[in-house]
Design brief:
The structure holds two protein chains of two kinds. By secondary structure, chain A is an all-alpha fold. In chain A, 76% of the residues lie in helices and 0% in strands. Chain B has two domains: 5-258, Rossmann fold; 307-428 and 458-588, P-loop containing nucleotide triphosphate hydrolases (Rossmann fold, 3-Layer(aba) Sandwich). In chain B, strands 7-8-9-3-10-11 form a six-stranded mixed beta sheet, with helices on both faces. Chain B has a six-stranded mixed beta sheet with strand order 17-18-19-14-20-21, sandwiched between helices. The chains are: A mainly alpha, B alpha/beta.
Amino acid sequence: MSGVVGARRADARGWGPLLRGLLLRLAGAVFVLWAAATLTFFGLRLIPGDPAQALLGGPGSQASAEALAQVRAENGLDQPLILQYLAQLGRLATGDLGTSYAQKNSVLSIIGSQIGGTLLLAVLALAVAWLIALGLALWATRGGRIAAAVGSGLEIVAAAVPHFWLALVLVLIFSTTLRWLPAVSTSGPAGLVLPVLTLAIPLAGFLGQVIRESVLDALAAPFTLSARARGETENGIRWRHVLRHGALPGIALSGWAFGWLISGAVVVETVFARPGLGRTLLNAVQLRDVPLVVGVVLVVALGYVLVTVLTDGASRLADPRERAA
Amino acid sequence: MSALLRVEELRVGFGRRGTGSVVDGVSFAVHAGRAVAIVGESGSGKSVTARTLVGLAGAGSWQTAEALEVLGKPAPLGAGPSSRAWRSIRGRQIGLVLQDALVSLDPLRPIGREIGDAIRLHTPLSAAQRTARVLELLEAVGMPDPAERIGQRSGELSGGQRQRALIAAGLAADPAVLIADEPTTALDTTVQAQILALFETVKARGTGLLFISHDLAVVSRIADEVLVMRAGRVVEQGPAAEVLGDPQHEYTKALLRAVPAGVPRGRRLSEGAGAPGAGAQDAVDAAAAASLEAPLDLMSGGSVLEVRDVRKTFAVRGRERGDVRVAVDGVSLEIARGTTLGLVGESGSGKTTLARMVLGLATPDSGEVLLDGAPWAPGPERLRRARRPLMGAVYQDALSSFDPRLTVGQILADALDVPGVRADPRDRHSPVAEPGSGARTYPSGRDAAGAEPTGANRAARADRVTGLLEDVGLAAETAGMRPIHLSGGQRQRVAIARALAPGPELLICDEPVSALDVSIQAQILDLFDELQRTRGLSYLFISHDLGVIRHMSDRVAVMKDGRIVEHGTTEAVFASPADAYTRTLLAAVLPPPGPARTL
């Protein structure tokens, strides 16, 4: 999923093309949301089991046949699938996300209470990942074969470790052995450290690889030689020239990273018993709570669309060639 | 007066100290207001010499010298490349201007910042004072609208403007010596003349110039002293007039001889290096004379290509709908069989768009192209496909036109494996042309439908590949190599062999020698010439280099802003240009270097 279908480059001159670009982008966003809702709706139906039973508290509730029939009628579950789909789509179009089957509460209010923690986690993880990746890339390209080999080795290992494993290793080191940090997420900032690191380290591996690659390209480019020939210092070369070139692919990758962080949050929030959108989603899927799952997926998809717009904007800020073209 | 920069017995190498030397014993001195030029072909060590003088020879290099003095003080040869000692010399005492300003200026930063950096690093001026100084510098290097350009980035400037900005950056901290490494190489003729004039003013103001170039005409214009380098050694050194006017060393003589400007059509530029059928110069001259008389005779063969009033426009992105740029604006051309039409023009003049339309790769908005008198373009590709073998193309960048995974043999076999390839391309009279029918009959060999190769076929094809390689002066073993392992000249020979494989009558050559060293360029031009004589090929020869065009063409068309502004026989266009633009273009051409040519 590469983000919004639409004009990557709206135009600077004249309102016509600008408006067309905006409309295209908007249409793309609507398409993404519709596709997410549709796939989720039908995907959940593929899981074996009876949604009515889920409504009455899951398979263990031993609900009577009458109760099941009543629940089916109340929620329209006795109608053909396509009608249920259209009805749900109609509700979504008016902004009504419905009521959670399991929690008997408005989906919007459930998401509202959970989204803050997840966003905080994702944003902090993204920031920490950038710091680690930039530091690693700049250090690994400082010259010297050992630094380069160690740097790229670290990136590959970081990018390859799965979240749940990394979470357990971090808990083992920092909670069980060193007793520095809590193993279960608490409300204070100390409780955030391990979840954020668990999400940030693999992402730093990915970011570091693309950043290091383009830092190396920039260091070998003739404009760097030109800058050195002007008497520029090593630090000047890095801060004034190389860093910006290195950051460009990282910015482009950050849009993708957001989606990746949300899926990582499912694991991390579960492992650290942290409230949030990820854990809500996992529970909702297990309970076949269709309205809540669709609601969470839609909110995540909307976030994805917004982040893509933001990274596009950031790319334009960092790369004037995108603006001029 | 003492030298600003003095070098004695400079040696530079890569690897263990004392081994792998790429510069071997170079000595010279640069004085105020004088220009020293180092001439050589790629790999001669001239650029490494230039970079060593500012301590930037590159990673893993070693340098020794009996003396290396900048403004009378020994340079810190042993110090690290980013040491303070070197940094205080760079930009302040020695400025360096690199070639290809598109990539030598940071594409993400405004040129004002790039130029201002040198001032920031070497003077205590405030930001406002720096901006004022940058504006002065831009004015001094002849940048149009300095106030507007100062905020623009290299991608927004033309080639000449970029080079001016780069020169301004080199001069920003007012260095005593300016080193310019191929500063005019990527530029159009008229822009090149302007940039050279700029270097002359710099020189006249008292800056010492070290000029690195492969272009002898440029060097003869600007240099007071010349060093000719080959494989890291100086083969000849002395005052410019003596070295270029009366060369003593064989290599210098060969270099001068290889310059095509002013050499009449048909005369060889390179010493008979392995060109099959190349006899003594007398024989070649006789053949040349014959080819000069030939056009009359060949005209009876009719035209192989006719372009009638073609026009091509492109939508301009970022403007209102319907706003277009006219790339080719009503061009008509004709190429008589067995002759060369030289198409000359500067970058952006529409040469390449025209070539693409002739090749049927771009569809003209209006007008038509006729091949052998039959309609060729516009029209669906399937109507052209059967006649594709009649037309071949050779481009500037041979390497990127090859699939890097294929060997040379596979590349050529691929080109042979096209429906309609003639059995023996040398036998150009065998196919019976039936204009208009779009189909040809072939007397023997592979059927035009191109059946799967059998064992016998495969052996025959291997023979054909060897034959093609031989035709372009390459050894049969080349077939097993990959293009990446070949030299620039060898790659261009493979590209020509590939173009010849289907047995074409017409070759479209788009800047085919522009990326080559002058001696290699001479060999490739000789090869084109010889192939034309032995196979009766016709060429549409596109170049920005008037010397090359004059040497290669029977007729010349001058293109500007999508139009042919002048068209005629080569002698007429060069001797008495009728159009004002052609006159400007010719005036910008530097006189060919070396002893007066005997025509």
